[in-house]
Amino acid sequence: MMIRPATIGDLDAIMRLERASFPSDAWSEAMMREELRSPHSRYVVWEEAARLLGYAGLRAVAGARDGDVQTIAVAESARGRGQGRMLLRTLIAAAHERGVRDLFLEVRADNPVAQELYRSEGFAETGRRPRYYQPDDVDAIVMTLDVAGWAAARGTESAASPDPTSQDRANPAASGEESANSAQTCEHPAGGWCT
C-alpha cells in the first residue's frame, strides 16, 4: 500500500473512481484538473499493486486559518480496510503543516459511514446546508475539526505515514509531473466522501 501525491498523470484513473463513487454529482474532468494544478490544493492517491484504489483532496492556502477537505473516495472493492481513514489523516496532517487551524468538510446526510469516520477523528457537526447535493436534494452536514487539537491528541508523527503533501514540497501536479501509473486517477466535489 502506498499513499503518494496525486499528479496530472492520475487524472483518468481519478475520474473513473470519481464517477463510480459519486454517480449523481461527480466533478467534471476540467474541475479536477484545475484542483490538481492549484498551488492551494493537496491531492493524494492510494495505490496497491499498481492500481489506484483511492484519492483525497485538501484545499488550504499556506498560512490561512481555514482549510477544506474537498473529497475522499475509496474504490468499492477496497472499502472497510481503513484506507479512507489513512487518506483523511494524510489530509489533516497536510493541513497542520500548512498552518490550518480549522478544517471544514461537507458530508451527505445520507452517508452515516463517512459521518462516523469524521466524528471518530474529532470532527464535530457545526451546521447544515439544506438540499446541497443535487440532483438528489440531500442535505450537507458541515463538520469542523480543530487541527492543532487533533495533532496534539495524536502526537505530530501519528497522522499517517510521512505526509507526502508537505508544504515544503512542490505540487507535482502543478508542474505537470507525470505519475508512473498514469492510466489511473480520481477526484470529487467539495465534501463528497466514500470510505
From TrEMBL:
Coiled coil: none annotated. InterPro entries: AcTrfase_RimI/Ard1, Acyl_CoA_acyltransferase, Bact_Acetyltransf, GNAT_dom. The keyword Magnesium does not apply. Residues 155-195 are annotated as: Disordered. One of its GO terms (molecular function) is N-acetyltransferase activity. Residues 1-148 form the N-acetyltransferase domain. Keywords: Acyltransferase, Transferase. PROSITE patterns: GNAT. Pfam families: Acetyltransf_1. It comes from the Bacteria. PANTHER family: AMINOALKYLPHOSPHONATE N-ACETYLTRANSFERASE-RELATED, AMINOALKYLPHOSPHONATE N-ACETYLTRANSFERASE-RELATED-RELATED. NCBIfam families: rimI. This is Ribosomal-protein-alanine N-acetyltransferase.
